[in-house]
Every structure is written in structure tokens, then in C-alpha cells.
């Protein structure tokens, strides 16, 4: 009995049903403690990570705001002529500024940001310009362009204004023209070499009328030096003469029939009468032609400031005089004018005239038809409040055209006094 009790006590020091409960209690307690510790550690790590990320995002936002403020200051300094003042960048917004508290009626006016200052207008007077630059006055450029167009007939004067245009033109012509001569009682045709220096001076008067119309008057005076060399087969003769006289006075009326709209240009209709005030001298030198010429024309103007494109189509009919009837003429002119600077405009153009054959006693003179083509350039500039200065020149491209010409015009504009009776002139 004793031996069996010792053996039993050595093999089972504790009751077998108590060992599992103690172990389970110890293991469960350890697992609970370790779980709490892990939960606290993960919570602490999550809070720290979120705080770091939030601080990082705020720093990135502050940096972006600072860069944008710096760029805005650079753009404002470029748009103003005055020297920009270096202002310190605004301090970066804080978390409190990012999420401001709700405003109340008492502190709403204090928390409201000040109104933004209005940027200066570009038309305000600027500081001194840098070397090599100038301030462009758009109105002055428009005046130079507008006055050039008035001078060329592509624009009419407004009602109540007038312009007088003194001018001087020099033309040089070297051409060959057919002439008839008698040889053994037979009429023969030969060519005469004609060299002509022509000075055409005078003035144009333009007066603006109501209803978009304009009255025009041209008074020319001519001085011509002409040398003619003829060869009748057996001998040659040369004659040299200088004459001066009043040229053909021109009277005209122009009216704007269509105003520019979209792709449609301005259209000006014009009717001109060149009187026969000029004459043919005793030396057979035509002082202006000496024929009554009627010219109808239509001028188109399309503006793309600072450019203006012009075109003119004309038809001339001359009345018979002393059995001579000059051929009808069709003219075509195209050009472009550029407002190159505040007070100056430049122009370029091409003039072409197609003349039909001349008739003598209703018989056509063979070879009298011709095509005259001239390439022109010009420059105009304002020299005062009312004065304008224009220079132009041209080179002949065909045999019947002048070899070259040079023109100077000084237009002077003034107001025309008129009285108003009630609401009518």
C-alpha cells in the first residue's frame, strides 16, 4: 500500500484536472496583455504618421502659394513701365488660416480681407522709356494713315472740314511716237523721238459736304520743256521748246456709297470733269491735253489697321475737238498703305491705264493705242497740328509711261465756318 502510494504521488504530484486550467489562465492573460500593447503601439504609430503627413501637405501648400505670389509679382513688374518695388513675399498660410473660424456679426468686418487694388490702365502716362524705344501714340498713327488715305482719294473729309493741297510734280518722259511726213508727194509714217521735262504745279481743294460727300477742285499750272527729233529718211531734224500755261482745271464730286462691314469694303463713287482750259501751243506741245474729259471711278478701301488696302477702277471719255477724238481710257490702281510709326505712313502701289486708238476725222490712227504702267512708292508724315508732308515717286514700266516722276504735296486742313438755322444748315 505504501509503495503504491509513493509511486502514485511521484507520478501525479498535482491533480490532473487542475493543470489545464492554470496553463490556460496564464496563456490567456499573456495574450491579452500583448494584444493591448500591440493595439497601443499601432494607435501611437497611426497618430504620428497622420500628423507627419498633414505637416508635409501644409508645407507643400505653403511653398506653392509662395511660388505663385512670386510669379504674380514678376508679371505685374513686366506690365508696368516704372521700376518694380521688391516686396517681401507674403508669409505662408498657417493651419488656422487654412481653416478660419466662422465669422460673427461682430468680427465680420475685421476679418474681411481688404479689396484688391485696381491695376493701372495701360493708357496712363508712363515713366521714361528705355534707350532705343519710344511710346507709340495710336491716335497719331491713325491720323497719319487717315490723312494719307484722304490725299489719295480713298477716304472723304468729314462735313465741316476742308483741305488745300499745294503740290509740285516733275515728270521725265522719253518716247517714240509716229508722225506723218510728205516724201515725193506721198504720205509716209516715221517715228519721232520725244524727250520731255514736265513740271506740274498747283493745288487741290477738298471740301467735306453732308451725306458723306466731298467737292473737289484741281487747278494745275504747267511748265514743259520738250525736244523732238524726227527722221524722214533723208535727214533728221531736232526742235527744242519750253512753254508754260494753265493746265486742265478739274472739278469733281465724290460720295461714299457703301460703308465697310465685315468683308465688304468702303466704296466711293467719283465723277470728275477735266475742262479744256489747257491748250496746244504753237509748238504742238499739249498743255494738259486741251480736251473735255469725263472720268467716272469707283474706289474701294479695306482697313486692317495699321494696314489699309485700296483699289480704284476708272473709265475716261474724251470729247472730240478739231476733228481729233482721243481714245477711251480704262484705269486700274491697287495699293497698300501702312502706318509705320506714330506720325508716318508708307505706301506702295501700281497704276495701269489702257488707252484705245485715237481717231482723226473718224479714222483710227494705227499704233496710237497703248498701255501705261507705273510702279509707285510714297511716304507721308505729320509736321504740325494741321500740316502734313507727303513725298511720292514712280517708275514707268512700259514705253508709253513716263520714265519716272517725283511729287511733293503739303496738305493743310482747316475747318469751314457754317451757320445752323434751327436744325438745318
TrEMBL record:
Residues 76-85 have a biased composition (Polar residues). Residues 76-134 are annotated as: Disordered. It comes from the Bacteria. This is Transporter. The lineage of its organism: Bacteria, Pseudomonadati, Pseudomonadota, Gammaproteobacteria, Methylococcales.
Amino acid at each position: 500500500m505504501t509503495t503504491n502510494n509513493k509511486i502514485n504521488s511521484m507520478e501525479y504530484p498535482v491533480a490532473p484536472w487542475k493543470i489545464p486550467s492554470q496553463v490556460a489562465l496564464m496563456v490567456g492573460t499573456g495574450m491579452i496583455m500583448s494584444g493591448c500593447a500591440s493595439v497601443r503601439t499601432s494607435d501611437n504609430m497611426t497618430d504620428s504618421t497622420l500628423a507627419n503627413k498633414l505637416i508635409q501637405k501644409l508645407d507643400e501648400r505653403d511653398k506653392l502659394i509662395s511660388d505663385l505670389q512670386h510669379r504674380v509679382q514678376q508679371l505685374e513688374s513686366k506690365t508696368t513701365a516704372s521700376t518694380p518695388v521688391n516686396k517681401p513675399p507674403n508669409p505662408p498660410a498657417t493651419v488656422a488660416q487654412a481653416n478660419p473660424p466662422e465669422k460673427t456679426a461682430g468680427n465680420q468686418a475685421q476679418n474681411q480681407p481688404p479689396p484688391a487694388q485696381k491695376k493701372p490702365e495701360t493708357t496712363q502716362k508712363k515713366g521714361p522709356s528705355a534707350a532705343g524705344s519710344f511710346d507709340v501714340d495710336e491716335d497719331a498713327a491713325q491720323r497719319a494713315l487717315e490723312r494719307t488715305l484722304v490725299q489719295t482719294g480713298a477716304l472723304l473729309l468729314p462735313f465741316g472740314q476742308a483741305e488745300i493741297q499745294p503740290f509740285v510734280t516733275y515728270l521725265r518722259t522719253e518716247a517714240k511716237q509716229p508722225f506723218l511726213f510728205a516724201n515725193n508727194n506721198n504720205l509716209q509714217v516715221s517715228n519721232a523721238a520725244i524727250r520731255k521735262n514736265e513740271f506740274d504745279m498747283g493745288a487741290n481743294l477738298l471740301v467735306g459736304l453732308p451725306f458723306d460727300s466731298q467737292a473737289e477742285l484741281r487747278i494745275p499750272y504747267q511748265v514743259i520743256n520738250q525736244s523732238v527729233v524726227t527722221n524722214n529718211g533723208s535727214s533728221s531734224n531736232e526742235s527744242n521748246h519750253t512753254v508754260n500755261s494753265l493746265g486742265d482745271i478739274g472739278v469733281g464730286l465724290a460720295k461714299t456709297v457703301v460703308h465697310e462691314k465685315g468683308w465688304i469694303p468702303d466704296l466711293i463713287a467719283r465723277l470728275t470733269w477735266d475742262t479744256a482750259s489747257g491748250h496746244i501751243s504753237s509748238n504742238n506741245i499739249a498743255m494738259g491735253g486741251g480736251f473735255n474729259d469725263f472720268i467716272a471711278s469707283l474706289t474701294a478701301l479695306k482697313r486692317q489697321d495699321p494696314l489699309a488696302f485700296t483699289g480704284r477702277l476708272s473709265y475716261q471719255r474724251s470729247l472730240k475737238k478739231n476733228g481729233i477724238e482721243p481714245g477711251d481710257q480704262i484705269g486700274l490702281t491697287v495699293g497698300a498703305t501702312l502706318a509705320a510709326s506714330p506720325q508716318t505712313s508708307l505706301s506702295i502701289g501700281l497704276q495701269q491705264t489702257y488707252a484705245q486708238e485715237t481717231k482723226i476725222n473718224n479714222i483710227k490712227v494705227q499704233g496710237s493705242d497703248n498701255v501705261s504702267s507705273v510702279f509707285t512708292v510714297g511716304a507721308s508724315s505729320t509736321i504740325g497740328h494741321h500740316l502734313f508732308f507727303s513725298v511720292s515717286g514712280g517708275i514707268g514700266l512700259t514705253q508709253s509711261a513716263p520714265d519716272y516722276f517725283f511729287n511733293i504735296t503739303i496738305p493743310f486742313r482747316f475747318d469751314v465756318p457754317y451757320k445752323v438755322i434751327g436744325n438745318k444748315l
